[in-house]
Structure formats: C-alpha cells, structure tokens
Amino acid sequence: MTGYTPEELASGSEFKILRSATSAFKRPEFLRQVLDEEKGAGWTLVEKFDNSRIRLKRSASARTDGHSTTFDPYRSYVGISEVALGLRIAATIVIGLAIVFGVIAALVRGT
User: Fold this and answer.
1) Considering only Cβ atoms within 10 Å of each terminal Cβ, which end of the chain, N or C, has fewer?
2) Is 12 left (phi over 0), alpha (psi -120 to 50) or beta?
C-alpha cells in the first residue's frame, strides 16, 4: 500500500477510497469510466488495491473549483452498494426456497 508523503499531507490534498461491491474494477472499461467521472471532480488515481477498491486524491483547491458533477464528489461506492447487493441475494434465496417448497407441497398433495 502506498503511503502518504509529507508534501501531500502538508499541501492539503484530499484522499478517498472508492469501492465496488461486485469487484467491477477488474473490468478495465468500467475502471476507465469511473476514473473519467472522478476526474470531472478533480480526483486522480493513486493506486488500485484490488478489484473492489481504489484510492484517489485531489488538491484541496479542487473543492472550490466549481466542478459540476452529476454525482457526489465524496461518494465512496460505485455501482450497487453492499447493502443492496445483500438484499438482492437474500430476496433471491427466499424466492428460490418458496418455489422449492411450493413444488414439494404440490407434489405431496398430488400423491
């Protein structure tokens, strides 16, 4: 993991970690799209930790540069959030179990 230099910290640079619950940063075209969006708010890539997390930085002056973005420049997730992903997985499991038990119940009643 790359450390912060004293110059970066003294200059008032901001840092953030951007996450993807579905490991979407493994797709180069998705990573490029996200970095292009973030560039509009003054953020640049510092490092890619893995397919789920990247670290970005920008100068403190970028806060007041009047960048107009269609997203929150301090967002920490792209794509579906971990909570939404978990809810979708849970709903899929519940629906799947309901179908299985429904089929079993129909078979038991039919015999």
Assistant:
1) C
2) left
